[in-house]
Amino acid sequence: MKLFGKTDFIIIALVLAAAGLFFVLNGSDDKALTADIIVDGEIIESVNLDEITDKTEFRPETAPRVVISAENGEIFFEEAECKDKICVHTGKLSRKGDTAVCLPAKTVVSIRGSSVDAVTY
User: Closest Cα partner for 60 from 42, 84, 33?
Assistant: First the structure.
């Protein structure tokens, strides 16, 4: 009794080829990252993280006030006047799908990209 037949090897080869093609096509466009700064449901700023190398601050008009900084392909809440500062403790965002929220200030920072990867899929 044979464990694998000729047809089994063909199916395995096709599945492996399809998986390899999937990873090659999805891995080619990972650098197009854009961070959206959203206040009260409206996008007030879209930042191309690939273009920012020096520290850049964003100070949206919110109450309580927040300071959002971006540098070296990362964006983060640097300061917040709210009590708990959960948004500051979230840390630096640098991958598609990363999100930080300051609920008292109704402010969201979210990173989006142009391709699907294992993290956002």
Answer: 42
